Write a sequence for this structure.
């Protein structure tokens, strides 16, 4: 039986280090191997130069790309994983290149680091993630900033962000499959955020609304947990549910509690901008706040 392949998109900076550390966790599953990929951007598209200038420049870029992969391979070995293959792929746009390369190497997941800029912790999505979520046929795993410094070598729990919408069905199934293969717990998690209520008795009314919301969410989670156990080798004891409450998204995410080896699995929204992953306006707040990696299922996965 051929090995499952994890493709990590490597660049020679902190993003690449975080991505390799996360890919090593993903490749720690038996029967899984790591493919190290680097996307080399087209140098001079459709503009031929004099003599051998173009060929020399292309050779320089190829040598530089191979050197980048050699650094990535050393990082992977430091994480306890030896890459089974190293690939340089040329394409305009790193995300589009990784999506195409994933098909060529038959990867089951693509791993990248967070985009530069934004908060110093959590996950930041940039153009690479946008292109991958739009064009990849396999899930995209994103490392939070600083993940390489944590020394995490494997996952100890899978958390699935859940909302009772059709997009959540494949996310729950994927999360349950990962948890079952690794023999680790599955948590189905949703968030209840206070709604602002004004006027006389507003505090009491807001609390009543929140309690009704929590009751409805707990009912949805219980049904989803039952389906997750029935559709996998997990038992009912292996699946836990949680409604995390807070006055805003950041507080709700913090209240959920996270382990060092947590992996968040979520679905892509079928509408709205590409960066609005899973729960609309809350999506970016959740990704910016969580301390763990996230695996996002692209829209093409049903």
């Amino acid at each position: 039986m051929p090995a499952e392949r994890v493709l990590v998109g490597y660049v020679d900076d902190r993003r690449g280090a975080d991505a390799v550390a996360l890919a090593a966790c993903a490749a720690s599953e038996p029967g899984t191997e790591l493919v190290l990929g680097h996307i080399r951007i087209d140098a001079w598209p459709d503009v031929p130069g004099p003599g051998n200038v173009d060929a020399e420049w292309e050779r320089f870029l190829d040598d530089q790309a191979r050197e980048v992969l050699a650094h990535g391979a050393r990082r992977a070995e430091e994480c306890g994983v030896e890459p089974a293959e190293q690939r340089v792929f040329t394409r305009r746009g790193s995300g589009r290149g990784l999506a195409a390369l994933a098909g060529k190497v038959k990867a089951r997941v693509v791993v990248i680091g967070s985009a530069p800029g934004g908060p110093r912790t959590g996950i930041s999505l940039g153009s690479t993630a946008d292109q991958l979520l739009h064009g990849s046929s396999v899930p995209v795993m994103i490392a939070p900033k600083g993940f390489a410094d944590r020394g995490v070598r494997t996952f100890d729990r899978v958390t699935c962000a859940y909302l009772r919408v059709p997009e959540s069905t494949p996310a729950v199934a994927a999360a349950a499959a990962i948890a079952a293969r690794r023999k680790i717990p599955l948590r189905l998690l949703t968030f209840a955020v206070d709604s602002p209520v004004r006027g006389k008795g507003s505090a009491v009314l807001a609390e009543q609304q929140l309690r009704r919301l929590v009751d409805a969410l707990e009912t949805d989670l219980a049904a989803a947990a039952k389906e997750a156990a029935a559709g996998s080798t997990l038992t009912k004891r292996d699946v836990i549910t949680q409604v995390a409450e807070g006055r805003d998204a950041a507080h709700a995410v913090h209240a959920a509690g996270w382990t060092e080896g947590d992996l968040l699995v979520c679905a892509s929204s079928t509408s709205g901008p590409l960066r609005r992953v899973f729960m609309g306006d809350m999506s970016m707040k959740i990704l910016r706040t969580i301390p763990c990696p996230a695996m996002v299922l692209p829209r093409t996965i049903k």
